[in-house]
Amino acid sequence: DELMPRYFYLASTYPVAEAEKIEAGLAAGTLHPNEVKRQLAGNIVCAYHGEAAAIEAEAAFDRVFKQHEAPAHIEQVAVCLTPDAAGTVYVAAVLVELGFAASAGEARRLIDGGGVKLDGVPLAAKEYNVDPARLEGTVVQVGKRKYARVLGK
User: Fold this and answer.
1) How far from 47 is each of 4, 36, 40, 67, 123, CA to CA, in Å?
2) pTM to 2 decimals?
3) Residues in CB range of 109: below 8 A, 6 or more apart
4) Which tens digits make up the pLDDT trace of 40-93?
5) Which residue, among 17, 74, 11, 71, has the nearest Cα to 37 in the 3D structure?
6) If you compute the radius of gyration of the chain from its CA atoms, what whole number of angstroms results?
7) Bridge partners of 148?
8) SS3 assignment for the chain
């Protein structure tokens, strides 16, 4: 939040006088920081990519962070879905392969904390092994910002 005024001066198309008013409004608490961030983001995206792109970027942000939907464009990643002797795939290894966790231990903690979803449905605590068919083509979500569509290789 404290960097917003600087970006109004350096990266936006607002005149200095307008940037000063915004900075004063933020300091006085008469402007809501979230609204100001949206205004700044829209201005910058519009300047570099056009008004249509700014409108779409704001709508995409709202879909993911306000309505808690998956992003419209999700990277497809091929990962090893070879089943073990029990016919299941270790989800923690998949999360590490996706780069969503640094280790299997971290991945298990994410699962146990309810931070891992398959097609929007949270994995239950201790649900570390799943049928490979459940993962193939599935959107894996970790936290609020990490998404990937899993493809077997």
Assistant:
1) 17, 16, 11, 27, 42
2) 0.69
3) none
4) 999 999 999 999 999 999 998 898 888 888 888 899 999 999 999 999 999 999
5) 11
6) 21
7) 140
8) CCCHHHHHHHCCCCCHHHHHHHHHHHHHCCCCHHHHHHHHHHHHHHHHHCHHHHHHHHHHHHHHHCCCCCCCCCCEEEECCCCCCCCCEEHHHHHHHHCCCCCHHHHHHHHHCCCEEECCEECCCCCCEECHHHHCCCEEEECCCEEEEEEEC
